[in-house]
Amino acid sequence: MADAVRQEPEGDVTDASTFDTKQLGFMCGIEVHQQLATGKLHSRQPSVLYDVTIDTVPEDWPRYARKLRLASGEGGKVDVAARFEKRRNRSFVYIQSPNSGLIELDESPPLSHDADAMDVALTVSAMLQANPVGAVQTMRKTVVDGSNTSGFQRTSLISTGGVLVTDTGDVGIDVLCLEEDSARKLDSLPTTNGEQVIYNLDRLGVPLIEIATSPDIQSPEHAKETAKALGRTLRDTRRVRRGLGSIRQDLNVSVACGDRVEIKGCQDLAWIPRIVRLEMVRQVHMYRLANELRSDLNLPPLPPNRELDDDAVESAVAKAASNHIPLMCTDVTSAFTSCESRMVRDGLDQGFTMIALPLKGFDGKIGSKTMDAEGAQLPRLGRELAGAAKLAGVRGVFHSDELPAYGIEENHVQQVRSVLDLDSKDAFVLCLAPDWQAHLALESVGQRARKAFHRIPQEVRNVVIKKGAPDDGTTTPMRPLPGGARMYPETDVPTILVTEDHWKRTIENLPMRQEERMERLKETELSEDQCKQLLSRELDDVFFDTHSTKSKAWATMLLEYESVHPEVLSCILSVRENGGLTRESIEQTVEHFAQSRHVSTQEIQTFSEEHGLVPADVGDLESIVEQLVLERLDFVKERGMGAMGPLMGVVMGACPGVDGKEVSAVLRTIIQRHSQ
Q: Which residue from 173, 218, 588, 606 could staple onto 162, CB 3.0 to 4.6 Å apart?
């Protein structure tokens, strides 16, 4: 990258389309996490997800309160993300769902890997031409947000060095892992001692395949294409879960003047290009801001490529930034005793303290809310500072670039400036919270303001979600990017050898690809729409394996009555095909047997006879139709084939139980004969 990108980034941050990926030194990779349709990975519990919210959780589900403690990794180092989490002082409540037991509660050792989950992981490895490891060693990966009761996630490396073929270009597969999914967050409650988070344990331990690509993605659009191709490969196994939340994509994005950032929450593939473009713009904006701040202090500028950074220079800049922004907070509560802001009044009534942090020389550099050409919020330091504060558990902060606002008036702003002894070039940040939490939040703000003099920090960010969908494609910080100290061996799970015979059997029994399945369907009499519907609903194997005739009628039944067991539908259609059931009575019959899993053709035939659903004897159908047409001959000659509709009802009334399709054919022939 150093040879390719040595010039300043070009483009206007108000319009993401003005940036060129090659000129920026764009790099991107994807991590996909896919739930498997097997039992839980290290317990023999079923992978059932319960449709409950914090308000609908059954009262008889037990609850357990926990706090996580800080521990060092195998090398004796404490992970940076874990160290930060400890300072947040959070507590956790775990709700035990019916499919969670002692292993999910971390009160019993884990079992070995679920055999089906291992088989799926090896199958996907073979489909991606990856190389399996000789022995599967489970590792513990420190998790700091409480979503694992043990404080770590069990993950196992399955294969490396694969390739995903896309139209834009091949994308390398660095690793494929098999790991446990986390508990589901139901709610969080603020307390005077820190945030309390409530989790449901139903999802904890559900097997996930994690696939991490190489940074071979060439553009934001290619990122979407890659995510779709990975999802399609996983679905081709027909052994993965479907539905909202069953697959999650994380994006690793960087440009030369920025650094690697991991973006979570990219569930909607259509949003991926926009999320990537906005992250590129954010990194460029923060790079330009860093050089503006450096220029104010006569510090050496950042090079346009991170590979050209000088450690000695960056160390000197860090020292200057620390001296320029001391983490000295001041209690300014007295300046707001007359404030009419409801937000401020409510906080003060709860005994909160208004704490202020001065930021020398930052006036006008924190920014205020402004939209870009596509309606997304432009990047600004203020969002980064607010994000840093929120990690301490507060709802947000106020800063001088956006004040007066929110009911805080100009006189309050001036009082704060007076207390802090600021001049016109200086800024400040306010936090209203319990004293300890306000200080922690503003310390995080100060640390983030110091980082503004440098390249963006490597961190995990989250897509801003509102009403269940991405808000505008922008992101907020979640936590520092974890380091290697978070991983250490799991001693409770035995190592699994991947033998040559096992790998050979896997390769010899790979599932069909989407293209092969479609070609197989096209060889039948089905319409193109039926083929696509069967494939998208993963019913094509059922179509071929469950019923003897591969007809349109069979496809229609599968698609219309998807919730009914296929063998039941096959028996009903067999009775229909053998003349024991009228076409019009299929719906009634399906409804009667809908809850059954096993039924015989004799049972269906008996039901048809008892309810008068057997087709009438049609041996004399032609003479009956002939007579009815002759009785209405003038009408037939006047209307021609237009008489079909009115006469169909007459014939069906005269011949109850006769197949409508057969009546239509006979009636058409006779009308044509008499209307000429």
A: 173
